[in-house]
Design brief:
With about 325 residues, this protein is an alpha+beta fold. It has eight helices and 15 strands.
């Protein structure tokens, strides 16, 4: 069984209000990429993934005017995917939903939010992050998707997350950028703590668990991490917990071994002011200890770093065209 996570940049721009695909020569949300080019690239990538379930991060939006579920089903039908049914969680207003695209012939999935260990993800979380004796109120702009799964390898829970970005968007100058970056990191860490408390509740209940998605964080990713002691990824993994309560992702484990050695990457962004690309490890598929023995292979579908992707020119180009993130998959036996 293959589980994957894929952050699709500006996916919602590829659909009209009725959920139909826009395969024309107008520009998509991606730099120098038309809607037709991005759509064709995404079809190629999803077909190559051939996953039983894909957590789609930044899925088409849902509102009174738009039906993201219908849009994603229509895309699956157009691409001829086995994973053609959609599980949707709490709706948000960011035009970026979290949805699970899955094969109903293999997997049964239902949105099953709980409030064990922490408040519901659609509500608010109170925590004092800066030790000033006053609580900070934290909310998810994109509440994590909580799914109960029936699979060929047994029952399990899946939490799909898209945690707050730390980038100082809208900064007026360097001082303001620093202020925004620190504030955003505080919120990102608070969301990871919130997520970790839910993880611990599932592990205490003896439930098999997968946590997947874009955490907008990796060990040593920015200079502000030292202010708070740990990265959000370390918090979600539970690196300081007892062995039976630690989540595992091999790419995160590799990154944590050394702050100065080469690490895997899952995203590639163009920095306009520097006229170069930046690569980062942001996307993960973490498993609970009871699932780790069944994990056969994690794969980052990186067009340059993965030989199987590099060796297929059509797939390689599609991965570069489709999104600024690359899929991460896990095969379970």
């Amino acid at each position: 069984m293959r589980i994957a996570t894929y952050n699709v940049e500006w996916f919602h721009t590829l659909f009209d209000a009725e959920g139909g695909l826009l395969r024309d020569d107008s520009w998509s949300g991606r730099r120098d990429v038309t809607k037709a080019q991005q759509t064709e690239a995404l079809i190629t990538v999803f077909q190559a993934l051939d996953a039983d379930a894909v957590l789609v991060v930044e899925a088409p939006d849902c509102s009174r005017e738009r039906d993201g579920v219908a849009a994603l089903r229509g895309f699956a039908a157009e691409a001829g995917l086995r994973a053609r049914e959609v599980c949707k969680g709490f709706q948000n207003d960011t035009q970026q939903e979290l949805m699970l695209l899955y094969d109903p012939d293999v997997i049964a999935a239902r949105h099953a939010p709980v409030e064990a260990g922490a408040p519901g993800f659609e509500t608010e979380f109170r925590i004092d992050l800066d030790i000033d004796a006053s609580e900070d109120i934290v909310r998810f702009s994109k509440p994590p998707l909580e799914v109960a799964l029936e699979t060929p390898v047994g029952r399990m829970r899946l939490i799909g997350a898209h945690v707050k970005s730390k980038a100082p968007h809208g900064a007026r100058d360097e001082a303001h950028a620093m202020q925004l970056a620190i504030a955003n990191r505080r919120k990102q860490l608070a969301q990871c703590i919130w997520l970790r408390r839910r993880i611990e509740a599932h592990l205490e209940a003896g439930e098999a668990l997968i946590v997947a998605g874009d955490l907008n964080d990796g060990p040593g990713l920015d200079e502000y991490e030292a202010l708070f002691g740990r990265s959000g990824v370390e918090i979600v993994l539970g690196t300081q917990a007892e062995a039976g309560f630690r989540m595992f992702d091999p790419h995160a484990a590799q990154a944590l071994q050394s702050r100065i050695s080469a690490v895997p990457t899952t995203a590639r962004f163009f920095l306009h002011h520097q006229e170069r690309f930046l690569q980062a490890l942001l996307d993960y598929v973490m498993v609970s200890p009871d699932l780790r023995p069944r994990a056969r292979r994690w794969q980052i579908w990186h067009p340059f770093d993965d030989p199987a992707c590099w060796g297929k020119p059509k797939l390689r180009e599609a991965l570069l065209t489709a999104s600024d993130h690359f899929p991460v998959s896990l095969d379970l036996s």
